[in-house]
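Q: Convert this sequence to structure tokens.
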Amino acid sequence: MKTWLCALLVLLCQACGLEQDISFDEPGASPPEGPYVTVLWGGNEDVVFLDSLDKVLFEERSVCLLWDVLLEAGLEEEQILSMRFDFEGQVEGEDPYRPSQRGCEPLAGEILARGYLDPEENGLLIWDSDLGLRGCYSVRGTVLILGESAES
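A:
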């Protein structure tokens, strides 16, 4: 009787379309792998796996748009435009590097629409050349994007 009842319940659940939601938080689930960057903004900390983003071809490189990285981290377009951003790079054997520590102010959000992150080149941050940005913004080994209110 119990076996029949269990089989009936299983069939009922399948017929109703109930599916089990599998999350990476569950024990035994594999987390994503590959290059990633952490985005800190407004008290949030989000990890964005770059392999999950669409790539564009820029200067013969397959790169991610910085704008897409921020959207994937949960920011909305209006938020990005009202913020400014700094970056942190970490290359093995070197101290962490931030442009703001070298006299380069955090960048306005709208500029990030013309910035790219190369996941194949150790997280190299590259920009449209017509922006005329100083070399300090070409961060290698980008591991962190720090967003803050433009009014800070």
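Strands lie at 36-41, 44-49, 56-58, 61-65, 83-89, 107-108, 115-118, 124-127, 142-149.
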